[in-house]
Amino acid sequence: MYVVDRVYQQALHQVLQPIFEADFQAHSYGFRPNHNTHQAVARSLENINSGSQDVIYIDLKSFFNQVEHHILLDLIYKKVKCNTTMKLLRSFLREPIQIKGKLIKRRKSVPQGSPLSPLLSNIILNELDKELKNREHKYVRYADDFSIYVRGKESAKQIGNSIYMYLRDKLHLPINRDKSGIFRPQTFSLLGYSFVRTYKKAEKDKYQLVVKKSKWQGFKQKLKHLTKKTIPISFDERIKRLNLLIRGWVNYFKLGSIQGKLKKLDQWLRNWLRYCICHHWKKPERKRKNLIRLGISNGQAYAWSRTKMRGLAVAQSPILGTTITVKRLKKRGYISLVEYYKTASLLNR
Q1: Rounded to whole angstroms, how far apart are CA atoms 62 and 223?
Q2: Phi/psi at 340 (nearest 5 deg)?
Q3: Contact 122, 31 (CB under 8 A)
Q4: Which 8-state DSSP code applies to residue 256?
């Protein structure tokens, strides 16, 4: 039955999406055709660099659980005068949930994970978009993540309070006061990106995009996991998985000024790959033979194959750096983080 429900919901989505898409506002970027996170982040940077550097960020508290059905259904009925469609949509929204052993019909909340959920969230929050547009505010919204850009902290306070009341009184949506607030660009982040000053003489009070610190840490942890010697996979499979991760991460964060950090991360990653290769050789005699094949003299190969140094220290040593070179790693399929970033950045222009 669950599969049948999803088929019906997908069919509803295909019918409703074109009807409401025409009414959606330009600065709503989430879950829409030809709209994406890069456009949202670029618009945010543009707003900040135009001088609107007091950012009102509002976090909607448990948004999907707070959407009231009668408000959402009224908005849909204004454009879709079809009783059958409305009945079907109502049945999905009000599907009973079990609480303490009893089935209770829902009067609010949108099922998360449903093909319809992103569209329904955009339909109700489009009312907020229209309100912001009518007030001529600069804003960016990606799904239920939205920010407003103004000049001056006092103006930001007034606008923030006004929008809070609009959400509470008109859409019946509560906000998370702990996460919401007024931020300066250097303390604000959006969709994994942060903002830092450019510090160029000709660009006073201008900002550029960088990657949020937690995203860097998460990326490095994933790279470290894939280069663990204990993972029972071949070197080729290891490279394949790393490349998938690198392509995905760099393509997402290619708008950021991250070349310097990627260069350091590249060096760190190559050392871990050398460590994996060295560990795979295992026995001292095999290490010696492989080092000789790579061009090391017999005496040096013997000494390094029997060294008491830890594996990573050996990987960082000149002996492997000059033998298991970047060129050799590339022949095995390794993708340089910096080179891929440069390519991705050029394609984005």
Answers
A1: 32
A2: -70, -40
A3: yes
A4: S
Tens digit of pLDDT at every position of the chain (349 positions): 477 788 888 889 999 999 999 999 999 999 999 999 999 999 999 999 999 999 999 999 889 889 999 999 999 999 998 888 999 898 888 877 766 777 777 778 888 888 899 999 999 999 999 999 999 999 999 999 899 999 999 999 999 999 999 999 999 999 998 889 999 999 999 999 999 999 777 778 899 999 999 999 999 999 999 988 788 888 899 999 999 999 999 999 999 999 999 999 999 999 888 888 777 777 767 777 767 777 777 777 666 666 766 666 666 777 777 788 888 889 989 999 999 999 988 776 6
Cβ atoms of 172 and 127 within 8 Å: the answer is: no
What does the buried/exposed string (b/e) look like for 258-290 if buried means 16 or more CB atoms within 10 Å of the residue's CB? beebbeebbeebbbbbbbbbbbeeeeeeebbeb
CA-based torsion, 293, 240, 224, 262: positive or negative: positive
**Closest by Cα among 325, 308, 310 to 274:** 325
Q: How far apart are CA 212 and CA 256, in angstroms?
A: 10
Give the separation between CA 122 and CA 222, rounded to whole angstroms. Answer: 33
Q: Report yes or no: 147 and 139 within 8 Å, Cβ to Cβ.
A: yes
Q: Are strands 102-104 and 193-197 parallel, antiparallel or unpaired?
A: unpaired
**Strand residue runs (E) in 176-314:** 181-183, 189-190, 193-197, 207-211
Q: At 100, phi and psi to the nearest 5?
A: 50, 45
Q: Which residue has the tokens 């670029």?
A: 42
pTM higher than 0.70 for the full model? yes
Q: In whole angstroms, what is the distance from residue 297 CA to residue 317 CA?
A: 16
